[in-house]
Amino acid sequence: MSIFTKIFILFSISIMLMLYLSSKTNDITDQKIGLLYKDKYIQASKEFLPIIIDEDIQKLDKKTNELNYKKVSIKNLPSKYKIVYTNNISFGKVAVYQDDMGYYLYIKYLDDEVLFYDNSQKKEFEQKEHLNYLIIADIAILVIMFLTIIKILTPLKKISKGIEKFGKGDYSSRLDKSRNNDEISKVINEFNNMAQNLEDMINSRKQLLNDISHELRTPISKAKIALEMMEGDKYKEMLSRSIIQIDELTNELLELERLNSNNLNLNVQSCSIDTVLAQSLSKMLIEDENDIEVKVNNIFKCNADINYLSIAIKNLIDNAIKYKEKGKVTVTVDDHNISVKNFGEPLKKDLDFYTQTFTQDDNSRAQKGYGLGLNIVKRVLEHHGLKLEYLHKKGENIFKINFPKNTA
Predict the structure, then answer these.
(1) CB count in 10 Å sphere of residue 94
(2) Which of 12, 104, 106, 125 could serve as 95's disulfide partner, Cβ 3.0–4.6 Å?
């Protein structure tokens, strides 16, 4: 749930609660005022009625002024009113009516009808109206607060989208500067500064790796040519292997750099697993063909970038050959999975440890190290939404890649 949704929900609840409380307060106030004037008018009717019976107009006017009442013409009684109280008396009637203007005392005796209005209730209704104005003002303030908060937080959407674009690999993405001199504006400025620094660092790293690769390839090529021209020597094979390892490490570093980039564009297409495996084997420099045994039990299709997936499988096979203790490395293609097996001791740590770059453990393999091979495998599979699994069974280390079965 977004911040804006939470604020809107809290604002809506506050408004509804305020309206409910104001409605209940208004009803309670009306009830109290109604009871007050009902009792007051009933008491006043006891004083007015004898005077009306005596038909003493002067005394009636005096009493009206004394109680701060005024007589209202019967014609002014609204057509729509509420009967609060009624009582039939001998030859007449006493009633209390209510309309939007307040409460009225109605007294009828024989043919005489008198309507009284208590002037003091104006103050009560003014106070009630004042309270209603305060409630309306409070609601208006809540609305203004809501709009102000939304205006303040609106840049957060842009910040979120900008950070998302940056996280997906668009390192040139920047946030629009805010004209306000507030905390959010400072966050935008700091993000832009951070993004610029990171982009510079990433570009510098890319340039450095490209430069290193370019500079290394020339002496490596010269060294290979020089080795070919050398006559048999006990150090020739050692030098050859060293140069090959340097060449492979250079290529792996470049591949790892591309795979670590979030904006890597894979050329994903439907392909047959035997085509991928064939391309993997073609990338390898196999000294002894007896080191590998390939078993294709079932051919299936998968959606993948053939080049990168073949690199991953090739590295997985290279790793198995490098660390096997005896026998052959078996590559098996079965029901929507491909597995690489070699004979050897089980891994002493979790697979995640060995898929990190240049990891070593405390056994004899530490002399060889784990290099970048498995890390590249992990990165390629992550880009394909796949996962590398490991188990040790009957003296064999088994590395397996499972593919979705619903691939067309």
Answers:
(1) 21
(2) 106
